[in-house]
Write a structure and sequence with these properties.
By secondary structure, this protein is α+β, with helices and mostly antiparallel strands. Helix content is 23%, strand content 36%. Helix 3 (88-94) crosses helix 4.
Length: 185
């Protein structure tokens, strides 16, 4: 079970997580903590991950470990420094378009959150490789994460939602079951 909630960006991210856990999972007085790398977690029987853009916040609540990331599809910039740290296979994809770079980036960041790793220090250990699929154009959704050279046993979901690329990394066997927009908390 994994559910995604998103809403206009609130002042504090954990207020949104608290609101969702209270109103959709009947959990009151949830206490929040952070790992040594800054990943939030709570004392509820669920795992969660947060991401926000300038206008929206995204929350994934799951039965197992999770990571979520989102980027506005219109985001543009000079991504040269980041691309230079990608593996050759990832760089080839990232160089096809800003859209494919942003999709790959959300997948990388969601996986780093899943692993509780700082995204910029994970480059040497976390890599994405294309699944073999001859004849199909290269696209981020066909890439899969490897950590320290071994394929991760995770489920990756990548999709477009309300003008954002959203990627979710979930414990193997879990899938996104529902997506709900919340208009204010």
């Amino acid at each position: 079970m994994a559910d995604i909630y998103y809403a206009p960006r609130p002042e504090k991210s954990l207020d949104f997580a608290s609101f969702v856990l209270h109103n959709y999972y009947a959990l009151k007085n949830v206490r929040f903590f952070t790992s040594k790398h800054g990943k939030p977690y709570c004392d509820a029987p669920f795992f969660f991950s947060l991401s926000h853009t300038k206008r929206l916040i995204f929350l994934c609540v799951a039965g197992g470990e999770t990571g979520i990331d989102a980027e506005d599809v219109r985001r543009r910039g000079n991504f040269t420094a980041i691309k230079s740290r990608l593996s050759p296979c990832e760089r080839m994809l990232a160089d096809t378009s800003d859209e494919e770079f942003l999709k790959l980036w959300t997948m990388r960041e969601a996986t780093a959150k899943y692993l509780d790793l700082p995204v910029f220090t994970s480059f040497s250990r976390l890599k994405f490789q294309a699944r073999k699929n001859d004849g199909e154009r290269m696209r981020a959704e066909a890439f899969f994460p490897f950590f320290c050279g071994k394929a991760l046993s995770v489920n990756m979901s990548a999709f477009e939602l309300d003008g954002h690329y959203v990627s979710v990394c979930l414990t193997h066997g879990e899938n996104v079951e529902k997506i709900r927009f919340i208009n204010g908390i």
